[in-house]
Amino acid sequence: MKILIGQSYFRVLDEKEYNRHMPYTPLGPLYAAAILKEMGHEVVFYDAMLSPGVKNFISKISYEQPDLLVIYDDEFNYLTKMCLSKMRDSAVISIKWAKSLSIPVIVYNSDAADFPVEYIKAGCDVIIYGEGEETLKEVVNAIGNNSFNILKEKITGIKYLKEGSIHTNANRKLIENLDLLPEPDYSLVDLEAYRGIWMNHHGYFSMNISTTRGCPYSCNWCAKPLYGRSYSLRTPQNVAYQVKLMKEKYSIDHLWITDDIFGLKTNWVKDFANELKKIKTIVPYKCLARPDLLLRGNTLNDLKESGCKTIWIGAESGSQKILDAMDKGTTVEQIYKASQRAKELGIEIAYFIQFGYLNEGWPDIKLTRRMILDNLPDDIGISVSYPLPGTKFHQTVRQLINEKTNWIDSDDLDMIFTGTFGRKFYRLLHRFVHYEYRIKKILQKKIWKDIPHLMIYSLKFIILQIRLYPYINS
Fold first, then answer.
1. How far is CA 266 from the centre of its chain?
2. What is the pLDDT confidence band of residue 474, given thresholds at 50, 70 and 90?
């Protein structure tokens, strides 16, 4: 068959992300494309990360007239897991257009798994949920053999319309040996366009890889639509080989390791570092880890030896009360210690911060601000608590959820539920904390050329402090 693979996440529709100029190739769809090509299908790839918009995708569908349209989102990228309404709209438009041309449609993304009605109503024939690759193979074979209607009840990991309602089949068993997956097919994307954006705006070229799937921890606000609480990983040898291949073939300068938790298994990072040394390939990378794991044994040293430049940790809050309410399983003390040790080794440390969790008050927010100023991480990313369907947190606050159930784009940062403070407060707080952080960073550096920025940030900080005063003292 001739299969057109596209995505619903259009970077151009996400202004904040678009203006960061840090695009990564859609890793999940490139794995899917490689598998379909192995099966002997003709694959046409549409890269929504570099696309001018959904109208261009519509034109591509009309021009190619494929036998099958697969909207397969990159679930290795946290942006696609956020279930943004702009991206759902783009998927619905694409599905309706394909169906008007009598083209069957398969959809694979977290939003379709959580909110299948919107996709089925648009005409989607089947939604894949859970781990996608093996299910995709079965569904494509069934459609290609004109036997999907006969076999669909036997295919695990799918949702479809049955007798007027959406039917969900049993979960798909997860892939046990990730090393058996083919390499992502980068020949289908314009890597030089990616390189150009990175070099023009940042002076280096970064690509993404995945070494694991899943997360065994139980943070109660974190959705696990793909893998549940399972955790599987590739061997250090397999990953090191891919890094070497990408360095030699694509001349990368940097990597983003997309794993939810990197280096969880004892000695994995040490073995990875040793493998990279054997093949004389060390590439700087950023990853996501937990503070408690960073304090385990020689993990930080092993990360440095393997080329780790930046570690993002889900710090979330400087209040132990809030961390415990989230079921994080970490402590504020661990965040402090991990930050200090990483800096001592010359590794950048960055924080994901989450405001607005249920029952978080101003004293808790002050503790988070204090943690940021005490540790001065190399970067911070601030968000507000977002109740995703299927999570314990969603169940807890479901009676407080407003009419709006999804963010429009990644810069929305709107409170979906009624929290301690109103929506306007958290928008002000987001900017307030960022300016407070930047002021402290500039004062720490003591660089004269930053004085104009210091003056601007200080003025904005004072204005925001005045605007926040009525909320804090109400």
1. 24
2. low
| pTM, entire model | 0.92
pLDDT tens digit sequence for 343-389? 999 999 999 999 999 999 999 999 999 999 999 999 999 999 988 87
Task: Flag whether pLDDT at 396 surpasses 70.
Answer: yes
- Long-range pairs of 18-24 with CB within 8 A, sequence gap ≥ 24: 21/197, 21/198, 21/200, 21/201, 21/202, 22/198, 22/201, 22/202, 22/206, 23/49, 23/50, 23/194, 23/197, 23/198, 24/49, 24/77, 24/194, 24/206, 24/207, 24/208, 24/256
Give the chain's count of helices (H) and strands (E): 20, 15
Taking the domains of the chain in order of start, what are their residue ranges? 2-168, 204-394
Residue 112: the pLDDT is 92
Which superfamily, per CATH, for 2-168? Response regulator (3.40.50.2300)
The CATH superfamily of 204-394 is Aldolase class I (3.20.20.70)
Cα 384 from Cα 471, distance rounded (Å): 17
